[in-house]
Amino acid sequence: MRPSERWNETARITLRRGRERAGHVSRFVLRRRRDALMPPLRATPLTVFNVAIVLVSVLLVVFVLADPYLVAFQRDMHPQVRGFLTFVTDLGKSDWMLVAAGGFLLFQLFRDVSYHGVRQRAAALRASAAAAYIFVAVLGTGLLAVILKYGIGRARPRYFETDGLAAFHPFSFEPSWASFPSGHATNVAALAMALGLLFPKARVAVLVFAFWIAVSRLATRSHYPTDVLAGIILGCAGAWIVARLFAERRLVFRLDRDGRLKRRRIRESDKS
Fold this sequence. Notes:
Mean pLDDT: 81
Structural class: mainly alpha
CATH topology: Vanadium-containing Chloroperoxidase, domain 1
Helix content: 55-70%
Order of helices and strands: HHHHHHHHHHEE
CATH architecture: Up-down Bundle
Low-confidence stretches: 268-272
Radius of gyration: 22 Å
């Protein structure tokens, strides 16, 4: 067999394997029964109202006490420091997060595990589910942040001198009027929350990483403190809710005796 024919045959086998495994994974997810021991994720109107009041109050305090005074700090920052933080802030884009999680998921779907044992196959399946969780958490919260920021239409800090602190142009669909909430802060907070839930021992490292991304958004005159704080809240809450929904179907996560989310282990085999 010529090299080109061998490559084409390998490609066909790989694609067929990927389609078959994708179908297997989709059927596996759809057939997962809800965990009978886990209370459903519900929020009463009173709970939603109380949470909304607390969040709005915190954001208003930051809006009044922090937003106006950070503008001068942003304007007078040393150029080299600004340049470094401009490099750091690009790490908050969701592109590389989605490519990494999606690429790992595709790799798990298309790689040949036929020669592995049952335990190794289960590990590959759980790794695929974890990658899917990260992908859904980052993508979902990122899309919600985009909808909110263009719907609210808050001006960027560079317009503070001309338009003031509370300048809004809803549904303008212009990046200059899309400050609240910060998309970068939302993305990195969702990623940090997801990784912190999946790898508890790495929480300090991912939190430090997320902190520098958040600080960089302030230093580059891209966002006010309220924008970044709102993005952090949105990203963390969104990733936690997605993890909770996964746990209800006994995917990736579970609840411990204290009601905290924990990652499911290989030894916690459950038959669906």
